[in-house]
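Researcher: Please predict.
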Amino acid sequence: MKDIWNKNFLIDMDGVLVHGKKMIPGADKFINTLKEKDIPFLVLTNNPLYTPTDLSHRFQNSGLDIPMERIFTSAMATANFMQSQVPNGTAFVIGESGLTEAIHQVGYIVTDTNPDYVVLGETFTYHYEHITKGIRLILNGAIFVATNPDTTGPSDKGIVPACGAMAALIQSASGKAPFFVGKPNPFMMRSALNYLGVHSENTIMMGDRMDTDIIAGTESGMDTILVLTGVTTKESISLYPYRPRHVIPSVAELLKYV
C-alpha cells in the first residue's frame, strides 16, 4: 500500500470524504497529507447540484480544506461533452446552478426555443412543467443528455431520488434514452485526468460504489480503492465481475502507510 503515495488521486466525494454535511473521520488528515506531499488530486463527483466554489465552501463547513480548483463535477464533464459535440450551442436545462454555470462557462446559451440539447441534472425540486417541456423538446428533436446515471443519492435524512431515476421517467415518456456523461462513463474520467494533467497509469480512483467509482476506474486503466464508508459493503463485492485493487474501511486507513 505504500506505493499509493507515488500516485495521483481521483477521489469520490459522498461516502468517501463526507456523509451529507458531516466529514468522515480521517478525511481531513488524508487531504492534508496529499497537499503536504504535493500529490495531484481531484475530488470527482457525480453530484451536479453545486458549483466547485459552492462545494469548496461546503467542504470548509465540514472541516475539509479543498479549493475549488481541486473539484470536478459531472456538470463540468457534461458541459465539456456538449461543447466537444456541438460547439457554442444551445440547451434547455433541468438542474441547479452547478449545471447552468458549467454550461454557460463553455459558451452555451440556455433557452427553451429549439435547443440543441435537453440537459437533465439534479434539482432540489423537480417541476412538472419543466419535465413536460423537456419531453416535448426531445420529441421535437433535441438531444437528451443527463449528467449521471445514479438512481439514488445520499442526504442527511436518507436516500433521495437522483438523476437516473428522473431520466427513466423522461425516457419512458419520450421514447428517447439519454446519454449519461458522469461516472462510470470513461468520458468523465478522461475529462478529469485531462483537467488534472495526469495519466491513468499513474492515478488511483477511490470511491465507495462498485457500480460507478470502481468500474469507472477499472475501465479507464486506473488502480482502484474501495472504501466501506458509503454504499458498497464488503459482502456485496462478490456480486460484481471486477474487483478493486484495495478494499479499506475508510480513508483514515491510508494514513497508516504514510
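Model: The chain has a mean pLDDT of 95.
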